[in-house]
Fold:
Amino acid sequence: MDAVSNSATHLPSSCNDHVAILMATYQGEQYLAEQLESLAAQTHDNWTLWVSDDGSTDATRAILDRYRRAWGDHRLQWRDGPRRGFAANFMSLACDTSIRADYFAYADQDDIWFSDKLARAVAAMAGTAPALYCSRTLLVDADGQVIGLSPALKRPASFANALTQNIASGNSMVFDKVARSLLVAAGENVDIPLHDWWTYLLVSGCGGRVEFDSRPSVRYRQHAANLIGQQTGWGSVWHRGLRLWRGSHRDQVQRNLDALAPLTDCLSAANRRAFDYYRASKDPSLRKRLHGLRRSGVYRQSRLGSLGMLLATILNKT
Structure:
């Protein structure tokens, strides 16, 4: 049986900003305890962990119970999830208004947080709302050995980028309560492919600040059971090309656009124009597609990615 740290037993007094950590679990027994210990080691210790478990049949729930007994209910609460996939599981937490905090952080069950993750995120977002923090991630294998680093940004984080690309993993994301209110207003049951991409879209679209930290804040574990892993290098180019050709990226983008359509009143005027033109880039007419893409101003982080987007638009694959 894994030892349970008692470092999270008492409520802190070192910082007034409270963080609600939102974790979705499913069959996570292999790595969950190590992740929980990394939360307990946070230098910003004013936090509560809220877990939604999507029907685990392994020891995940027993581990959560063990930590809740050690830490206390003020530190860890867990409940049954909606059992509609990981995005819906995260959204059930993000949109639960009974969970109150100054900041909210997504957490995966199998990663390892750097001890200063929350401290850096809260400091980076101070003074601006709505705000979203995200960072690069240190890629590790199933045994925790470093195998790489996620890409750095080449262009700014913005709504024009968010319409076509998600720049960061949800496991690095922390956002303030104003950004959280946007998620609540959009609704828990919105049909979206990815909770982190949706968060990036809403915050950037509604005039929020997106702070991308070039320093990693999470050891992002890559293993066979990952629902979504981080691809890098030429393998990632090939993977994205296949997704474009097969239409899976197009389907994800369309779901995002459909979900955003009822919320355009919250977008800035410039972002509303970008949204409308980008939707026009999905028109059956090649001329209208190219005109919409050009006027939308959307871009991906790399030149190769933007070229691929143009090619996909010409072939009507976006």
Residues 9-14 have pLDDT under 50 and may be disordered. The beta strands are 19-25, 47-53, 76-80, 103-107, 112-113, 131-140, 146-149, 174-176, 209-221. The longest strand covers residues 209-221. The first helix runs from residue 32 to 40.
